[in-house]
């Protein structure tokens, strides 16, 4: 199904840049962006907070040193 939309110059530039970076069509970029927006909308703030609290609980239970983990990740990116 085809549709026509008007985009301002900065939005079009972003669309083109993402298509090149992801090596997909502009249509695919729009599909992915819409899918992601719909998924984010579907998750309530309460669900997000609950997920964060669950993650924090599991990290504490496993005694993961987040500061050390962060340093390790940073060192690996250099």
Give the arrangement of secondary structure elements:
Elements: H1 9-22, H2 26-42, H3 45-61, H4 66-77
Helix pairs in contact: 1-2
Q: Could you explain how this protein is built, in words?
A:
There is one protein chain. It is built from four helices and no strands. It is flat, with a radius of gyration of 19 Å. Helix 1 (9-22) crosses helix 2. With 78 residues, the chain is mostly helical. The chain has two domains: 8-42; 45-78.
Key words describing this protein structure:
single chain; 78 residues; mainly alpha; 2 domains; 4 helices; 0% strand; flat
Strand portion, in percent? under 5%
Work out the helicity level.
Answer: over 70%
Overall pLDDT = 91
**Poorly predicted residue ranges:** none
Largest sheet: none
- SS element count, helices: 4
State the separation between the terminal residues, measured CA to CA. Answer: 45 Å
Q: N-to-C SSE series?
A: HHHH
Helix and strand content put the structural class at mainly alpha
Radius of gyration: 19 Å
Count of individual domains = 2
The shape is flat
Offer a quick outline of the entry.
The chain is mostly helical and 78 residues long.
